[in-house]
Each structure stands twice: as structure tokens, then as C-alpha cells.
Write the C-alpha cells for this entry.
Amino acid sequence: MTAQLKLLPGRVVANYGRHFLVENDAGERLICHPRGKKSQAVVGDRVLWQASEDEGTIERLEPRSNLFYRRDEIRTKSFAANLDQVLVLLAAEPEFSESQLARALIAAEAEGIPPLIVLNKSDLGDAFNRAWQRLAPYRAMGYTVLGAALEPATTSGASHPEVPEALRIALTGKTTLVLGPSGAGKSTLINRLVPGAQVLTNEISQALNSGKHTTTRTTWYWMDDARSTALIDSPGFQEFGLHHIEPMQLAGCMPDFKAHADKCRFYNCTHRQEPDCAVTARVAAEAADAGDISDQRYRIYTELFAELSQTRY
């Protein structure tokens, strides 16, 4: 009778299609494959795995504290699990989409994950000031919004502004998913905070022979030798579906709406055309510089409510 191999604890630190890189508690990493045809594992998952020659097999997922994901009409895209916060990186130029920002924040709120907003390219003067002003409603909601001037490292020896100390402090001791549209400077941020990140990514790609496999390029990086502060680099996104959220949940995931929604006349108020709606009253007040919900935020809400109210298949 063959003795059963021991299941070992580990963490998924990279996801390349059906190939995973798992890190054990000693910091050693090896390629693992899921048991069966389908795996639900994502970067950040704690797993139990079994050694098999020079690779391993993921046998079981440990319970998650959260899962950050998006869902459109066709598919679900999971980014990462067991997060302490989500960093949404924007840039003064090209101009960011406020709808895209709102969607990412709503997805984080739905999972109870604190968001952190960073606006890059503070060196652009007027363009940065305009973008910073656009983020005023988010600061008023209580979100932490930081500015930065992130420039790619060069071989010329020229110095660049340091990553702001306030940002380093906000990241310390936490596991942070870094999210943002293409062109915002996400790769630059990762490489500035984790100098060996690009080398490590190339090593992982080579180890997994990723040219032969579909890759999501979601990767876990440690910022410190003590392995107490982690960044998760995710692919850039252009669309962010929220079809996993019910229309009536939407206001509860938007802090400026949530602050007033329980004051509406009707408990099931949709905040669109009902009488004595506390939310629409605040939107009207905002036009007179006395409210808490901007016209743009209300427009985003109504568009999302209509989108999520469509028949789902």
C-alpha cells in the first residue's frame, strides 16, 4: 500500500494559463499544475500542493478573504485573491476615464477591499492640476488620492524623482493589487518599487515556456526581503464589467450615494425618478455648490444601473 504524499502549503505567485508558479513558506518557487481540467486558482491564493518530481500539483484551494474580479456578459476575469488593498493608477495624460475608475472602485467596494488612487505625471503642470481637480469628489468621499511623477529608469545615470514616501508608507506591510489602464505607468511603478521585477518576470516566462501558453501576466512581487510587503502586477484593462453586481447593490458600493440612500422615502428607491429621493436631492444641491454628488457621478450611476438592469443570459 503506497503512502499518501504530504500536502504542502503555498501561495500562487504567477498565473500562466494552466501553469502556476507556487511559492512555499521558505520562499522557494516551483511550477504547479491544477488537479483536473479546470482550476479556479488565482494569484494570491493560498493552496495545498503535492510534489511530483521537479514540479507539483495543486490539490486544494484554501478559503479566501476576498477575490477581486470583473464580469461582462460573456466571461469572468479574476485578478487576484486575499488582498489588503487595490491601487488604481491613473495618469494626467492620456486623460483617464472616470467611468473606468468608478467601475474599479465599485468592484473593490463590493468585496470590501480598500482602494488607493494614485495620479501619475505630476510633472505635467496644468494637465496634472486639471486631472487632480477631477478627483476632488473621490477625495471628498474619503478615498486616499496621492500624486506621483514616475519616470522609467534609464541607463544614462540621470536621476528621477523618488517614489513618494506617502505611497511607500501606504503600501508597507500590505498585499496590493496594482491596477490601471495602459499608459498610466504601471510597469514603471512596479519596476521602481521592485528593481528586479523585469528580470524576475523574464525568468518566470522562460521557466514556464510561456510562449507556448496563454498568459495573463498577473505576477506577485515582494518589495522587501522580509516578504511582508507585496505588489501584484495585473494586465492593463480597457473595459471593466460589473455584471456580478445587482443593480440595487450599486448605490451601496458608491460612498457618495451610500451616505444618503437610507434617507430616501422608499426603501427600494432606485435613485432615478422616485419622489423624495435623498440622492437626487443632493445632486440638485451640488449644482448650487452645496451638495455631495456631482452630475458626473450621477451620470455614471444611471448608466451603470441601466447596464446592470438589462436581461442577463
